[in-house]
Write a structure and sequence with these properties.
About 75% of the residues lie in helices and about 0% in strands. By secondary structure, it is mainly alpha-helical.
Length: about 130
């Protein structure tokens, strides 16, 4: 009985904790659309680094250089990006929706690069 009460109490505590804003909204929060754009570019930068990391030109580069190039592009300090990311992650359902947009955009870019997007458009026109 004690075990069931403890489990029920833990579940109730977890549910109520999820409803409260645990992470306070940062003073300089990156807007959602810009954050999605930045996350897309972070993934692209990471992929570029992983693709070229064994190239002789890239041997002295580190993944952080690619990360900071994205921050420079958007003129966002790393502390603002980190705080915004932590804040958005503290709302898992909303963050999942954001990340679906990131993944969708990456998928579109992959299709454009591979030429499959044109094939898909032609297929849709034929229908």
């Amino acid at each position: 009985m004690k075990k069931a009460f403890f489990i029920l109490f833990t579940v109730a505590l977890a549910i109520t904790a999820c409803e409260n804003e645990i992470i306070p909204k940062p003073e300089h929060l990156i807007k959602e659309k810009k954050m999605i754009d930045m996350l897309v570019d972070v993934h692209l930068a990471d992929a570029a680094f992983n693709h070229f990391r064994y190239d002789s030109i890239m041997l002295n580069n580190r993944t952080e250089n690619f990360y900071y190039s994205v921050l420079d592009k958007y003129e966002v300090p790393d502390s603002v990006f980190e705080r915004s990311l932590i804040y958005y992650e503290s709302f898992p359902k909303d963050f999942e929706k954001m990340y679906r947009k990131v993944m969708s955009r990456l998928s579109e870019l992959e299709q454009e690069r591979s030429g499959r997007k044109d094939e898909l458009l032609q297929f849709e026109e034929e229908e």
